[in-house]
Design a protein that fits this description.
The strands form two sheets. Strands 3-2-1-4-5 form a five-stranded mixed beta sheet, with helices on both faces. Strands 8-7-6-9-10 form a five-stranded mixed beta sheet, sandwiched between helices. Helix 2 runs parallel beside helix 3 and helix 6 crosses helix 8. The chain contains eleven helices and ten strands. The chain is α/β, with parallel strands linked by helices. Helix 9 links the parallel strand 9 and strand 10. Bound molecules: adenosine-5'-triphosphate, magnesium ion and fe (iii) ion. The site of fe (iii) ion has 6 residues, from helix 4. InterPro entries: ATPase_NBD, Gcp-like_dom, KAE1/TsaD, TsaD. It holds the Pfam family TsaD.
Length: 333
Amino acid sequence: IDILAVETSCDETAAAVIRNGTEILSNVVLSQMKSHKRFGGVVPEVASRHHAESITQVMEQALEEADSTFSDLSAVAVTEGPGLVGALLVGVNAAKATAYAKGLPLIGVHHIAGHIQATRLEAEWEYPALALVVSGGHTELVLIREEGQYELLGQTRDDAVGEAYDKVARTLGLPYPGGPELDKLAKTGDPSVPLPVAWLEEGSYDFSFSGLKSAVMNTLHNARQRGEEWAPEDVAASFQQSVITVLTEKTARAAAACEAKQVMVVGGVAANSGLRAAMKEKFEESGVKLQIPPLHLCTDNAAMIGAAAYINWKKGNFSSMDLNGVPGLPLHM
Ligand code: ATP
Ligand code: MG
Ligand code: FE
């Protein structure tokens, strides 16, 4: 079963051909990073325009690299949400047009289900499986007891962790996109700056990062008022430590409480070197299998959408031609 998958929810125009939900025949990602860099963030209008300009070419390239034609395909899949509405619509319309013209079934996929299913491209799962989703717009603990069922255990009450990374990076004067830059800088510093760790109520699997973000800003500001300056690499290391402490600890607690057989860390921030190392250390001796996708499958791509679409295909879960882009699409299915 070969599925052509399309992803345009944010600032990557991506298409992939995935066999049986696990084998990557092609995975094309066109990043718009350079266009958004001078604005210091993703500009929705600019994103939609770029998607519209390149979607056809990216889809053709995915087929070409997979050495496949439309007649080899079993379905066309696309991210239907969440994401930027104008960006989503470009992918949804391209997928609908293709499915209609070639007489193929259409499959709408949830972007976060995609991030989670990215781990399927690497190895089989054991249930119950626990996913820590850490991305630009989401920070959640999701329990999967059986294939395609997602149970939300906890989520951020304010900023997503990727958002906090990007904002703190900007405060430190780092170039966009801030997450990877802050990660690099943190490696050279000491976590010597006193910053809070947001545990919230006992037993809660929710997260909060806006207090930490404000604490970084206040700490820098107060030092400047005294005519002092914290070393940016130490601020970065301290911020990263606070984030990683709470993410690893809450994931471990949830894994134990749910008797998870495996834990996954997914989404753009799963590319963070400190988080990857801390998770490995935490789960190494616990007997719980840990899966973190390789870097190029952590950030947005269409291979993960093809992996998630295969589950829908197996269940006969197809979308109709009135499929729409839904910016706030919920994960529960
Ligand atoms: P969502 O998936 O929630 O819809 P998104 O698709 O915009 O949001 P992703 O592409 O999954 O988000 O992830 C992008 C985020 O990951 C950005 O906030 C970016 O700064 C962050 N990120 C990427 N690499 C790293 C890293 N090495 N360390 C920390 N953050 C990182
Ligand atoms: Mg992106
Ligand atoms: Fe994403």
